[in-house]
Amino acid sequence: MRDWRGRTHLELRDGQQIPYETLSSIGGTLLQLMNLLQGADVTPTTQLTAAVAERRTALNKLLSQWTALKAEARTLNLTQ
């Protein structure tokens, strides 16, 4: 995923780079993984299973951040 400037990572002051996570990017990778699962007539590999678990973890983290942001907006009286 790219931001409006075309960047794919957030760069911190110490030089560390963190990839952007969005609902769209997580959904896209989950869709690709699910297509791999559907297209195979064998038991999923441990790598594929781990990749799905990692994407689900990323989704849960992003949803938690969204929930926290909404709560903060309510405390600042930014929402109805």
Average pLDDT works out at: 84
Sheet with most strands: strand arrangement: 1-2
By DSSP (H or I, 4+ residues per run), the number of helices equals 2
DSSP strand tally: 2
The poorly predicted ranges are none
Structural class: mainly alpha
Domain count, please report it.
1
Query: What is the molecular shape?
Result: extended
Main sheet specs: 2 strands, antiparallel
Give the percentage of residues in beta strands.
Answer: 5-15%
Order of helices and strands: EEHH
Rg value? 17 Å
Description:
The protein is mainly alpha-helical and 80 residues long. The protein has one domain. It is built from two helices and two strands; from the N terminus they run ββαα. The protein has helices at residues 23-39, 46-75, and strands at residues 9-11, 17-19. Strands 1-2 form a two-stranded antiparallel ribbon. Strand 1 (9-11) and strand 2 form a beta hairpin. It is extended, with a radius of gyration of 17 Å. 2% of the residues are buried. The model has no long low-confidence stretch (mean pLDDT 84).
Short description:
The model has no long low-confidence stretch (mean pLDDT 84). By secondary structure, the chain is mainly alpha-helical.
Write the layout of secondary structure elements.
Blueprint: E1 9-11, E2 17-19, H1 23-39, H2 46-75
Helix pairs in contact: 1-2
Task: Considering the chains and any ligands shown, give keywords for the structure.
mainly alpha; two-stranded antiparallel ribbon; 80 residues
